């Protein structure tokens, strides 16, 4: 069993599934536990659309023109700093971990989301350079992703 698979099987909901069904497969688990609306929303987070505005690139699901304008004024037009401010995502704000295994899983999930964002940026905006980082300091507010122009 790979480290990734072992992490998946450490999650209580997956353990319960395996105990009930004897095995695990992604398709059946999603079929029983996920609505189409949940899948569409997660797809927007995991493989985001981007909005180009006032020289910056913003996550579609985080974009608000008024907020960008406010931060551009506050940060003296520093587009990468504004992008980082708008384009940060605390995983604890969108998922509520229940127990240690889920906290560990979110820490492992954050770099995978960062990879997906990098791939989506490269596909959609191949002529621009971006930095996607993950912060996961135990003293901070959980795993957090940041996206900004390089």
Principal-axes geometry comes out as: elongated
Roughly what percent helix?
Answer: 55-70%
Distance between the termini: 38 Å
> Proportion of β residues?
15-25%
How would you characterize the largest beta sheet? 3 strands, antiparallel
- Determine the structural class based on helices, strands and strand pairing: alpha+beta
**Roughly how many Å is the radius of gyration?**
18 Å
**Spans with pLDDT under 50 lasting ≥5 residues?**
none
Instruction: Round the mean pLDDT to the nearest integer and report it.
Output: 93
Number of strands: 5
Oligomer category: single chain
Order of helices and strands: HHHHEEHHEHHEE
Q: How would you characterize this protein structure?
A:
This protein is an alpha+beta fold and 150 residues long. It has a domain at 50-149. Helices cover 55% and strands 15% of the residues. It is built from eight helices and five strands, in the order H-H-H-H-E-E-H-H-E-H-H-E-E. Strands 3-5-4 form a three-stranded antiparallel beta sheet.
Give descriptors for this structure.
55% helix; 5 strands; 150 residues; elongated; alpha+beta; 3-stranded antiparallel beta sheet; two-stranded antiparallel sheet; 8 helices
Describe the structure concisely for a colleague:
The chain is α+β, with helices and mostly antiparallel strands and 150 residues long. The protein is 55% helix and 15% strand. It has a domain at 50-149.
């Amino acid at each position: 069993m790979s480290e990734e698979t072992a992490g998946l099987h450490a999650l209580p909901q997956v353990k319960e599934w395996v105990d009930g069904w004897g095995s695990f497969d992604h398709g059946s688990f999603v079929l029983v536990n996920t609505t189409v609306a949940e899948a569409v929303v997660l797809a927007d987070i995991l493989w985001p659309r981007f909005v180009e505005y006032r020289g910056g690139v913003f996550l579609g699901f985080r974009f608000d023109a008024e907020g960008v304008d406010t931060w551009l004024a506050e940060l003296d037009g520093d587009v990468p700093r504004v992008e980082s401010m708008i384009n940060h995502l605390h995983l604890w704000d969108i998922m509520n971990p229940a127990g240690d295994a889920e906290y560990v899983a979110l820490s492992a999930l954050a770099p995978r989301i960062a990879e997906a964002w990098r791939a989506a940026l490269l596909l959609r905006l191949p002529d621009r350079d971006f930095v996607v980082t993950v912060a996961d300091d135990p003293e901070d507010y959980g795993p957090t992703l940041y996206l900004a122009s390089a």
